[in-house]
């Protein structure tokens, strides 16, 4: 099982993660929240595990929402400051919540145990398959957005996509998100798919479905 580390503050994650790498546990790269590379790795590697590092308490408000968003991509272990209430994070979908300031040796053992447990359970299947690489958009942000929409048949809320694709400090601008979504129509059409939108203008939901032409052909 591959670890993918996502930090809400890479500079403050450094000391702990360097210590854990000394235990030959974690990969050398720490991704910031919103990293296209991190999300693509979680979506394309069949046995991946997201480690969300939360360096301090200022990230506590809304943390369960971030956990829930990552959990749509892969299993999640949250490393949190001492005193963080784990119940909300577990309810949001975290596979475990570990205190990041426990002794490094103990934390390394706990993470290794979690990895073995999750690996034995097998990968979490994504509900839709990614199209052939030749049909994926060349632009990284468009390719990631397409994979996100194809990975889960449940609708994606515009607010969730904005937070997932933005930085830790600032969600992606709604106008920029809308422009990216609009550009996907030309990619989905050759695949026999269409992007649907529902809800009110302040809270829109996006889902990829078979196109109207495909439904007409397969209708008995």
Quickly describe the structure.
The chain is α/β, with parallel strands linked by helices and about 220 residues long. The protein has helices spanning about 10-20, 35-45, 65-70, 85-90, 105-120, 140-150, 160-165, 175-185, 185-190, 210-220; strands at about 1-5, 30, 50-55, 75-80, 95-100, 155, 195-200, 205-210. It contains ten helices and eight strands.
Strand order of the largest sheet: 2-1-3-4-5
**Poorly predicted parts:** 214-220
- Tell me what portion of residues adopts beta-strand conformation: 15-25%
Average the pLDDT over all residues and give the rounded result.
Answer: 86
Radius of gyration: 18 Å
Give the topology string: H per helix, E per strand. EHEHEHEHEHHEHHHEEH
Distance between the termini: 43 Å
Give the number of helices: 10
Bin the helical content: 40-55%
Number of strands: 8
The largest pleated sheet is described as:
5 strands, parallel
Structural class: alpha/beta
Overall 3D shape:
globular
Can you tell me about this structure?
The protein is α/β, with parallel strands linked by helices. It is built from ten helices and eight strands. The chain has helices at 10-22, 36-44, 63-71, 86-91, 104-121, 140-151, 158-165, 174-183, 185-188, 212-218; strands at residues 2-7, 30-32, 48-53, 76-80, 96-99, 156-157, 193-200, 203-210. Strands 2-1-3-4-5 form a five-stranded parallel sheet, with helices on both faces. The chain has a three-stranded antiparallel sheet with strand order 6-8-7. A hairpin with a 2-residue loop joins strand 7 (193-200) and strand 8. The longest helix is centred in the middle third of the chain and has 18 residues, at 104-121. The protein is globular and about 55 Å long.
């Amino acid at each position: 099982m591959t670890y993918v580390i996502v930090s809400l503050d890479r500079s403050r994650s450094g000391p702990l993660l360097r210590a854990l790498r000394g235990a030959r546990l974690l990969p050398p790269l720490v991704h910031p929240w919103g990293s296209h590379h991190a999300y693509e790795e979680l979506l394309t590697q069949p046995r991946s595990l997201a480690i969300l590092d939360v360096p301090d308490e200022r990230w506590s408000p809304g943390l369960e929402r971030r956990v829930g968003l990552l959990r749509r991509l892969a299993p999640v272990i949250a490393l949190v400051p001492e005193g963080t209430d784990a119940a909300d994070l577990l309810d949001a979908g975290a596979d475990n919540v570990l205190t990041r300031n426990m002794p490094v040796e103990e934390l390394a053992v706990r993470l290794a145990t979690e990895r073995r447990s999750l690996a034995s359970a097998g990968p979490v299947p994504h509900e839709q398959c990614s199209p052939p690489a030749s049909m994926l958009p060349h632009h990284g942000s468009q390719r990631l957005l397409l994979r996100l929409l194809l990975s889960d048949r449940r609708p994606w809320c515009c607010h969730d996509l904005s937070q997932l694709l933005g930085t830790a400090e600032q969600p992606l601008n709604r106008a920029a998100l809308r422009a990216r979504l609009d550009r996907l129509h030309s990619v989905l059409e050759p695949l026999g798919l269409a992007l649907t939108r529902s809800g009110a203008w302040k809270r829109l939901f996006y889902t990829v479905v078979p196109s109207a032409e495909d439904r007409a052909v397969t209708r008995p």
